[in-house]
Amino acid sequence: MKKVIIITNPTAGHHSRSRISRFVRHLEQAGPRATIARTQYPGHATILARDAAASGLYSHIIAAGGDGTIAEVAAGMIGTSAILGILPLGSANVLAHELKIPFNEIRNAALIQAGHFTTIWPGYLHTKAGRQLFVQMASIGFDAHIVHGTSTRLKAWVGRAAYAVSTLSSLFRFELTEFTVLIDDIPHRATTVIVSKGSLYAGKYELTHHSAHGDRNFSVILFETSGKLALVRTILSLFLGRIGQQKGTRTLTASTVRIPSPAAIPIQSDGDRKGFSPVHLDISASPLHVATGPTPPPAG
């Protein structure tokens, strides 16, 4: 194993210098030297990861933070031979739950040392702001409005509970708008769309029965509900693990999703705000290698 670099986001919801220090200590007991690089602004993790991958000095580039930090690090190293390591320090840590990555620093360090990895196929968002990679999921509509309205300070303080506060606020403030969704160029109508690579949502809640991380496609969940009461029932069904049984939702498989609407519908990916529609989503042409256990995690 070559050296490893740990890219950490000091503003992540549960950033912890002590956890990072323990992780480094156990990692270096097996030999590999670890360099720590701290992000200073949005997008900095991508630059740090790109430079680290280009140097050829590191076998692993480790993202220490939440899903947003992981996506930024992945964007800088995708398509290279470097392996993405994950030390979960965020509020939801959905990808870590999805890929069964240990939260314990000692077991996580042992996983990195073993050198095993799983190959996944992330997605890209294409908006007016440009192309942005996401590793777990993106959404357009009510779900994204919740993310747009979530206070970063409150999220750092109370973690996932901040999303509950924003959900209640969004139920009163957000106006549901029906729009056209082109799924593999076939038109559908919806008020919210979740485009997911994984099977989980907001941590450990089941969104679909199948993870598409190893596939070159998405799971696309269409919310066709138009009233606030129906929307509340749909949200509750999601957190009760019954979204697949809920009337007014459909799950499809696709390799491209396009929402041409110019109506400024909010977008989020991996828990971060990503502007407004129109938007086009597709699968990365290059895979990403992620440090996991010796065998891939079971789908769903």
From TrEMBL:
Q: Which domain of life is it from?
A: Bacteria
DAGKc domain ranges (all copies): 1-111
Under the heading Pfam families, the entry gives: DAGK_cat (PF00781), YegS_C (PF19279)
Give the CC-aspect GO terms: plasma membrane
GO MF annotation terms: ATP binding; kinase activity
Q: InterPro entries from the entry?
A: ATP-NAD_kinase_N (IPR017438), Diacylglycerol_kinase_cat_dom (IPR001206), Lipid_Phosphate_FormReg (IPR050187), NAD/diacylglycerol_kinase_sf (IPR016064), YegS/DAGK_C (IPR045540)
Concerning SMART domains, the annotation shows: DAGKc
Which keywords label this protein? ATP-binding, Kinase, Nucleotide-binding, Transferase
The record, for PANTHER family, names: LIPID KINASE YEGS, SPHINGOSINE KINASE
What protein does this entry describe?
Answer: Diacylglycerol kinase family lipid kinase
Please report the organism this UniProt entry assigns to the protein: Gluconacetobacter aggeris
